[in-house]
Amino acid sequence: MLMRKNDGDAEAGPGRRDRSESLASHAFLLPIAAVFVVLFAVPLAQTFSYSLTSFSGYSGRAEFVGLRNYRQVLSDPSLLQGLAFTILFAVATTVLVTCLAVPLAVVLNKRFLGRSVVRSLFFFLSVPSMAVLGLVWQYILSPLETGVANRVLHALFGSQAVAWLGSSTLARTCVIAVAVWAAVGWHATLYLAYLQAVPADLYEQAEIDGANQLQQLRHITLPQLAPGMVVSTFLLMTSGLKVYDLPFTLTKGGPGFATNTLTQSIIVQGISQGRVDIGSTLAVIFTLAVALIVLAQLAISHRLEKGLQ
Fold it and tell me: pLDDT tens digits, residue range 20-52?
């Protein structure tokens, strides 16, 4: 009888330990869940409730208006332009930075004189804030003949002054180009960290087998960079969708509404003009758009990662 009791206790011991470990792990998740509820779920629910009312933020009265605010927002051409440019900016910067940062990381991973200095120079491009970069590039891209870009073009080719930020196409191109210029170095450093973890034996074995540089890039470098590409593209996409400081300081959202972003519209409509109902509606639409785009981006990145491996 004594032996049977001890055997039962021995069998019950691992089960109790598993339950206690499970309870401990859930206890560690409680602070995270509390922060999520307080800082995300509750504000999002309140924002959605405001979007269904006529609440202005100044008066306590808020009449229920249903989907009227959504119809108003989706019929406003300036807001639609802001949504279109936000998506264009996020997708364009993600694609261009990735296409430039990967080969740059491969070059920076090679041995050459002054490699550390060159790495630092590319990394420090992303150190200043986007607001500061916007002000600096606003001076560089000045439409006057004294603008830095126009002076360089006139000295080299004798061309006339160009209104870089005066047309919709040029303004969008300049905003995207400045964002890419600022982000390439940081993301190349991210890829460089992944490249330095690749065993050198893989490349030596590939050379022995007769693989050229392009084949090594396709079958060794890119598969090893696949996890880094998922992280990099996710960061680029999320930061691109919530961009505000660079277009605002560089173009003020102009010309017209060509470089207006959703974040700028939320701030202007919801805070500056005191339209909490419209700002809340924009915030809800923005949250849904970001969620859909990020989920699609993660699915594409996951398939790409599987295809490279």
Answer: 667 777 777 888 888 888 888 888 888 888 888
Burial class of residue 52 in the structure, from the number of CB atoms within 10 Å of its CB (0-12 exposed, 13-18 middle, 19+ buried): buried
Which of helix, strand or coil describes residue 256?
coil
**Sign of the four-CA dihedral 112, 113, 116, 121:** negative
- Please state at what angle helix 168-195 crosses helix 222-241, rounded to 10 degrees: 140
Between the CA of residue 179 and those of 47, 81, 97, 148, 201, what are the distances in Å? 30, 19, 9, 18, 37
In whole angstroms, what is the distance from residue 94 CA to residue 304 CA?
A: 15
- Listing DSSP states for 68-97 in one string gives HHHHHHHT-HHHHHHHHHHHHHHHHHHHHH
Mean pLDDT value of segment 141-157: 87
pLDDT (tens digit, 9 = 90+) per residue, 243-276? 999 999 999 888 888 898 888 888 877 776 667 7
**Is the distance from CB of 80 to CB of 258 less than 8 angstroms?**
no
What the block records as the tokens of 193 is 């960290």
Question: 89-116 burial by CB neighbour count: b if 16+ within 10 A, else e?
Answer: bbbbbbebbbebbbebbbebbeeeeeee
Q: How many helical (H) and strand (E) elements, i.e. helices and strands, does the chain have?
A: 14, 0
